[in-house]
Amino acid sequence: MTRAREAPRRGPVVILGGTAVQVEAVHAAHALGREAHAVTTACADAVGAAADEVALMDLADVDAVTRYAQHVGAAAVYSVGSDEAMPVVAEVTERLGLLGLVGRRTVDLCRHEHQLRAVLAGAPGAPASPERVPGPDISVTGFLWGGELVFVGVSDRDCRAEDGDLVHAHTFPSRSADCLEVHEAVVVLDAACQRIGLLDGPVHARMVVGPDGVRLTRLSPRLDGCHLWRLWREVTGVDLLTAAVAGACGERPALAVPDGAPLVPVWPRSGDQSVSLDPAEGMAVA
Fold it and tell me: Which Gene3D superfamilies did the record assign (predicted)?
């Protein structure tokens, strides 16, 4: 199933949030030749320096955010790596009739675990219960356009139990998932996106490589909060963040790679080294 998309709209991108992670969304908007306005409760210096305009307001005040986006003639409202911001992004987008990437129903499904489990019941790799499935964690980063997964990257989540399951690094190629399990992760992600009605834009999933196959444990219709797009830009040359901002504005995302390597799933090329991304420290090539 696909949906017809209107022509891209002119105007700035309104980015919700003032933390440093939103700076990269500001740069992505600028790369597309658009202004970037940061709407935030409190603004980090980096965002203030990068954004064309900063508006201080309560991000939970949907009416205020809507008025601001309407006032500046926004082409899109967007945010990176924030489950809290996504309902506001979706609500303002729908109120103003903007193109956007994800609807409020899909956002709400992914924020309520019991509802998500009900919708995914019977799908490949569906979460069986709230109990933790034993096995190593993987991150699955996807991008859809017109209902089709056009990018899927599988990476290891290197976590430490003593730190409360905090991720210390994401590594590609995955050491936890073999070829069959990588393909299985693509099938699981595709089925989940179809069930929740996600047609366009980024999707981030956590999965476990368990004794009975790959199981989905978390699904978010957004980019992750660990800068994983940096890892995939290093590996493939594809900039998923800029693609997401472009898609939110109604532009067709640029997702091709120079050598024509497949992006569903992303496979390491002969001679490629292992690449790890530490969310705090940045990239390392082993």
Answer: 3.40.50.20, ATP-grasp fold, B domain
Using only C-alpha atoms, what is the Rg of the chain?
18
C-alpha distance across the termini of the chain, in Å: 41
Determine which helix (DSSP H) or strand (DSSP E) holds 50, and give its type and residue range. helix 45-50
Extended strands (E) in 13-172:
13-16, 36-40, 53-56, 76-78, 137-145, 148-160, 166-172
Number of CB atoms found within 10 A of residue 50's CB: 21
Task: Return the pLDDT at 46.
Answer: 82
94 SS3 class? helix
How confident is the model over 215-240, as pLDDT tens digits?
A: 999 999 999 988 899 999 999 999 99
Rounded CA-CA distance 35/78 in Å is: 13
Cis status of the peptide bond prior to 173, with omega within 30 of 0: yes
Q: For residue 86, give both structure tokens.
A: 């996504």
- Backbone φ and ψ for 154, nearest 5 degrees, come out as -115, 125
Tell me the mean pLDDT in the region 81-90: 92
Of 225, 226, 216, 208, nearest to 170 by C-alpha is: 226
